[in-house]
Amino acid sequence: MRALTLFILILTSLSAGLVKSEPSVESSKAYEKAQAMRTSAGNIIESSKDKEALQKAETILLKALLYVRSDKIRSLYANDIYLAARQWDILRDLVEVNALQKDRAGALLYLSEFQRHQQALYRVATNAAVVNLLKNERLFRQLVGSEKAWSRIFEVNTFSSPFQDNLTNAEKIAGLSLFWSEAKYNFVYFDQIPDLNWDETYKKFIPKVLATENSREYFRVLMRLAALLQDGHSNVYPPSEIIDQYFAAPPLRTRLMDDKVIITAIYSKSLKSAGLKVGDELLKINDVSVHKYANDFVRPFQSSSTKQDKDLRTYSYSLLRGDKDQTIKLKIKTESGKRHELLIKRIYTDRISPIRHVFKILKNNIAYISLDGFGDEQSLNKFIKSFPQIRKASGLIIDVRKNGGGSSGYGMAVLGYLTHDPVIGSSQRTREYLGTLRAWGERRVSWKVLGGDNAKRWIQPEIFEGPVSVLIGAGTFSAGEDFAVAFEMLKRGTLIGQTTGGSTGQPLFFELPGGGSARVTSKRDGYPNGEDWVGVGIKPNIEVKPTVQDIRQGVDPVLNKAIEVLLKSQ
């Protein structure tokens, strides 16, 4: 019973004031301290598993457990579920370290905490040392059995199966049912689509999926179903084996401007040689007027929560997507008014990828950097590498108009270089389903507030004190918008451009029969006061709308306005 003795000794020390109680602390700092203690114990175990080392590691973990369960730290649980979860991670560590010491009583002591609070064992259930020591103990078998039963209920890959040319009717129904049910119990924006009866929609789609003759048709039907949720983070993805029948696209970019579809970028010399030019207007696709083509064949499959995002997806990202083996017939109108037709492919071997994360010094010593995505650490690394020059600049422009998202942490770390204050991000909440309340006749949704990184101090070695402008547009999406919200809350400068895409959140991913996959948004983000910006977008402080003539002349009016604003603030 060494574990229990240690627990009592440390608890006595805490009561006697020998273990110092923590002053007021931020939840993020408490989280980091608890994790540091876990890491310290883990490093000891990794380096040596002799008796003395294991006892030392156990003592550190017990102190970590008492720390996170102290009154001051527990008071932070309500607004930070990640901090609250640390106690269970530490308890799992304690079960494992006791198993390594072959201390059956100690391991069972900590296991009883999981039973008492109905928490999952996770990795402990399969840890070799734990299994070898406790496999015949009734408590351990009971907890493992309970965990398996509940994990089957929430298993996201239950219906997954390999790709096949055509699914069975049972698989077609299973895939449809899975998407319907995951949305029914997890999707957080049904109030933004009040006219959609999700159960009736499910029934209407049963004959639609059964009528499909191959996997391509089947997943196209499911993509249309997902689009009815009108959310940018709720989608169906076809199997990799046929994905190039949906999403192959020629290396050019188009955009809806003043009700015209304009070519805004070309990333292939072959296409330029074929007769295309930036600024050309697209009139027809495959002999169908461009707007009819977009509305009939593209728009119904776009999952979007705002008009600006749906227009961007319809006219920019997806307009020319399709089967890689099919050519596209375009009717073009040049700047001079000349009209001509040409056939283009969707695949070109001389495709040129545009340069991402650009940094440069503009006139009047204004620093410009484009953060074109937070999918990895490249954008943050580019900012850090450029910071010595940024720090000396008279003003800073951060361009996130092409930032489609990724991990919000990278953007928050960048904002840490602009302020000494905590970076306050979006509020976060998720649905909380309580079956008994439903049985009692309750029909309203319950919400659970999520804590974490919505108010965190990102400490950086140096701070840029000068004026800042951030460029935004419809292509600013997800984590890019989280960045814009946090920047707006900092009051460090001006948002310039157009309203953002209006979608972020934590998608729940799951696999579908036939090799496909899907996701639905399970987290609802808003301004710190709870007001929604998903489904609306983040509006700029100064709106600037590029024109067709700007594209043809190579002018960037949004950037020019930012320069003007920064010069006035100096």
Task: Report a brief summary of the structure.
This protein has 570 residues and is of the alpha+beta class. The protein has 3 domains: 2-153; 252-344, Pdz3 Domain (Roll), CATH 2.30.42; 359-569, 2-enoyl-CoA Hydratase, Chain A, domain 1, CATH 3.90.226.10.
Commentary on this structure:
With 570 residues, the chain is of the alpha+beta class. It has three domains: 152 residues; 93 residues, PDZ domain (Pdz3 Domain, Roll); 211 residues, 2-enoyl-CoA Hydratase, Chain A, domain 1 (Alpha-Beta Complex). It contains 20 helices and 20 strands. A six-stranded mixed beta sheet has the order 8-9-10-15-16-20, with helices on both faces. A four-stranded antiparallel beta sheet has the order 5-4-6-7. β6 and β7 form a beta hairpin. α5 runs antiparallel to α6 and α9 packs antiparallel against α10. It is globular and about 85 Å long.
- Total number of distinct structural domains: 3
In terms of DSSP E residues, the strand content is 15-25%
Helix segment tally: 20
How much helix is in the residues? 40-55%
Low-confidence stretches: 9-24
CATH class of the largest domain: Alpha Beta
CATH topology of the largest domain: 2-enoyl-CoA Hydratase, Chain A, domain 1
Q: Average pLDDT, to the nearest integer?
A: 91
Radius of gyration: 28 Å
Structural class estimated from helices and strands: alpha+beta
Oligomer: single chain
Major sheet characteristics: 6 strands, mixed
Cα(first) to Cα(last) distance is 69 Å
Q: Name the strands of the widest sheet in spatial order.
A: 8-9-10-15-16-20
Question: CATH superfamily assignment of the largest domain?
Answer: 2-enoyl-CoA Hydratase, Chain A, domain 1
Tell me the total number of β-strands: 20
Shape: globular
At CATH level 2, the architecture of the largest domain is Alpha-Beta Complex
